[in-house]
Specification:
- It is a single chain.
- By secondary structure, this protein is mainly alpha-helical.
- It has one domain (about 1-410).
- The two termini are about 40 Å apart.
- It is built from 18 helices and no strands.
Length: about 400
């Protein structure tokens, strides 16, 4: 129901703001902008997202099917099983969903956008097989979605690339702030859901895994800070992410050959399911992106920003962060929209300005909550998301606050 109320609110708020602009400010083109935004976003939903997604889905679900038959998914399940059995108590021991969730998180952490979505949709489908009420999100599905919406990412390759395109002096200087902010978002979301689901956070296995991941990120940040130049960090990011993407496919295929399965036929069987899933999510994509488009076209985001600036002036606070806030507003709604906002902030205030850098950290601190919930739950027919959206937005808020403080710490 939360998604229903939010979607209705997009249209109602847009209508009243547009009406005020027409009647009191004589903006005779505002409703034309709303209608054009509706048609444009509907077309983008299908032609720009769903159809390209169909190709990626077919490819990676085919590769995943090979990995399952070759035993790679079960192998990963055994490695992360002790941790996931505590964090996802509804998943049976050694169930394939455990390995699929791990694969999905790994792809997200390394910025493998093309692979992350198909792997994630495969994981949510496996969790749906364990779900007793097929129209209501299970506890495991909520935990998984909230961790996804936190956008945990170690290598924000696309953000670094965009900064390089806009001639930033040091395109990778946002790397460490992005890692810290997205990690804060992930931990905040996980803790909230764990408390809600009465998961024992003091369990030795959970503490060991969270402590280990925290140590790994801390060591990586320290090494990047002390031993690598900005150019070397950028090179490491590009090489490691693309190497891993290809290595996963190659290892799965070699595993299939070793197990003497018909690799090609197994790939085709998995690819067929990828195309079917892509078609199924089109209505959900159209609904969500059209709602976001009208909310943005009416100028609501600009009014939110000016209101925040006024409040900051009222309390004599530094307002430099406000210039980058449109990226934070847009990030839970639309990945492409937040990227456009990030580029706009860097273009307006320069990539090496405080606002330009903060906009990049905002973009790397979390993921698109509403889009992910609509896409992933829609792909398996879930209609009641329960508290997934509030928990995801809480994680987003934690990431945004962390991004602001970290950016002031790093960039002054």
């Amino acid at each position: 129901m939360a998604l229903n109320y939010i979607w209705v609110a997009f249209f109602i708020i847009a209508f009243f703001i547009a009406l005020v602009r027409l009647i009191f400010f004589g903006d005779t083109e505002i409703f034309m902008h709303l209608v054009n935004g509706m048609f444009s976003s509907a077309e983008t939903s299908v032609m720009g997202i769903a159809l390209p997604l169909a190709g990626n889905m077919a490819l990676w679900l085919g590769i995943m099917n090979i990995g399952e038959k070759a035993g790679a998914i079960n192998f990963m399940s055994r490695i992360v099983g002790p941790f996931f059995s505590r964090l996802f108590p509804g998943i049976p021991e050694n169930h394939p969903a455990t390995g699929q969730i791990m694969m999905s998180f790994s792809a997200n952490m390394l910025g493998l956008d093309n692979a992350a979505t198909p792997l994630g949709l495969k994981a949510i489908d496996s969790l749906q097989g364990l779900n007793e009420d097929k129209e209501t999100a299970s506890n495991a599905q909520i935990m998984y979605l909230v961790l996804l919406t936190s956008g945990l990412q170690l290598l924000p390759v696309t953000i670094i690339a965009q900064r390089a395109i806009l001639h930033a002096k040091d395109p990778t200087d946002i790397l460490i702030p992005c890692i810290i902010a997205t990690y804060v978002s992930a931990v905040a979301g996980m803790l909230l859901v764990a408390v809600k689901q009465k998961i024992n956070l003091w369990d030795r296995v959970i503490i060991s895994w969270i402590g280990g991941v925290t140590l790994f990120i801390s060591v990586m940040v320290w090494c990047f800070t002390h031993y690598f130049s900005k150019a070397e960090i950028s090179t490491i990011s590009k090489v490691s992410s693309n190497l891993l993407m290809y290595a996963v496919a190659a290892v799965f295929i070699l595993g299939g050959v070793f197990k003497k399965i018909n690799v090609f036929e197994v790939f085709i069987d998995g690819a067929k399911r990828g195309f079917e899933t892509s078609v199924k999510v089109i209505p959900y994509l159209v609904a969500m992106l059209v709602g976001i488009a009208v909310f943005r076209a009416c100028g609501a985001l600009d009014y939110m920003n000016e209101g925040l600036r006024w409040i900051c002036h009222l309390f004599n606070l530094d307002t430099r962060f406000v210039d980058a806030m449109p990226v934070a507003y847009m990030k839970p709604l639309s990945g492409s929209g937040s990227k456009a906002m990030m580029i706009n902030v860097m273009t307006t205030f320069k990539p090496d300005s405080f606002a330009g850098r903060l906009g990049c950290v905002f973009n790397g601190s979390s993921d698109t909550t509403f889009y992910i919930v609509a896409l992933y739950y829609g792909s398996v027919g879930i209609k009641r998301s329960r508290y997934a959206i509030p928990a995801g937005l809480f994680a987003d808020l934690a990431g945004i606050i962390a991004a602001i403080f970290i950016s002031y710490l790093f960039f002054g």
